[in-house]
């Protein structure tokens, strides 16, 4: 049986919808790493806070792997890409309610995890029950 998908992207989408439904401004706290595409001029201490509100973003896509959208920074349209692993939290700007996540280790883009040795499939057996 394969390992279940992470709950993190589902929780991020749910809290985003909760913010929007209640008239709050969803903000995303992101750890900037080699896979994250954000305007570096706005990064402080290796992190950036992004406004995900509908008025602040264009073409917002939230998949199980990443969040991508366009936003304006100092009047310049910029394409952003945030891997789900880089998301540290999502919260409402107005009241701070939301959820924060444990930091995840950065995975280098060119490295691949070592393959685990294949498990030998168990042969079916019959047991006599008296």
From TrEMBL:
Protein's name in the database: ClpXP protease specificity-enhancing factor
Pfam families: SspB
Composition skew (Acidic residues), residue ranges: 103-112
UniProt keyword list: Hydrolase, Protease
PANTHER family per record: STRINGENT STARVATION PROTEIN B
Matches recorded under Gene3D superfamilies: SspB-like (2.30.30.220)
GO biological process, any: proteolysis
InterPro entries per record: SspB, SspB-like_sf
GO CC annotations, alphabetized: cytosol; ribosome
Chain intervals for the UniProt region annotation (Disordered): 103-130
SUPFAM superfamilies linked: SspB-like
GO function term, MF aspect, one: peptidase activity
